[in-house]
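We modelled the chain as a single entity of 388 amino acids. Its sequence is:
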Amino acid sequence: MTLNTSRADSTFGNTFHVNPRVAEQLYDRYTSALSQVHNSSTDESSPYLPSPITSFLLQTLIEVSFWASLIQEEGKYHEFSLALCPQEFATDSFVFKSRVPYEAAQLAKLAPAFGPQENSIGVWFDEHGKLFIWGFTPPEGISLAVKVHEPGQLLVSFDFGVAGFTAYISGSRTEFVDPSNLPTNLRRPELDERRDDHAQIAKFMRSLKCGGTLLLVNAESSWTESIHQPVTFIGPPYDKIKNDILYRDEILELELNKDPLTSHQHRTAREDADKSLEVIGNLTAVDGATLVTFDLVVLAFGAKIRAKDVDHKPERLVISEPFEGSVEREIGLAELGGTRHQSAAQFVFDQKDAIAIVASQDGRLSVLGWDRTEGKVAVIRPAEFALL
């Protein structure tokens, strides 16, 4: 078990305690990564080097946020994120006049205003080693963060460029995320080049909570053969999103010697690109599949997938998880899920250079591609942990 649960005399009835073995694993990862950061720094006095925290503070940070994730505010649960950093090192932050106690009730009250893609709730500790909430800050550049993925599900991450880790924590398991734990044939140049943008679209798809399918294809491929004709929502290739992405990258390249977090031109270009990526995510909410090229030219949406040959279906698939130590296993097509997932598997089976990203209504993501080594459709699920 990841978390020990015990009854307590409290407003909400339960308290949660990180299993000591898990707490030790997390703290070992944290201190190891922190050591690499400090060893690689040429200036130990740099104010941007993260300060160490104790094992107790890390454990408290997780337990209270876990508890808060189980509290409904305004009649529903909310995703939110925490950033552990001193307020003076955060950029573009809002600082409360008085410190707010780091309590589950306070986090739950703030949660509706701070989705993981927007701002993070700023947390630090005082001279007595007690955590408090000081305000909110954009998530960029924050080294230690906790994201509430679902009620009772957290992502704890430490990222400072040269070192880091991400851990998935729930009430029943802890897994360290390993995005590289993917079938070899799903690692392609056309995917790597736009990996972050594809991930951003997947985040938008997941946030909609209505389910959807995104098909990444080569424009010159025979993808139309796997789509029922006629397609209602189809037209000339729409390349505005691609152009917005290229412009963002161009501005970033020109401003490499500046801080991209404070460059107004780059921030504007980045925000425009994010809005364009959100357009693709929203298109997947229309019933049917959305088809875009790997470099994000929109081809069609609301498309119905069909088998090129009704007698040829992907009977067996290979599925894996993006966690350390995950082992591939075979499943039948029916075990994959409903019509949306099975039709995506069929599309990849027929269009072997394509990649499918499927979002379930519950927010779970699956990535499907053709594994040439196995000669089967390969599935990564839950893919959200490799993309978030």
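As a brief sanity check on the tokenised model: Residues 20-40 form the longest helix (21 residues). The chain has ten helices and 19 strands.
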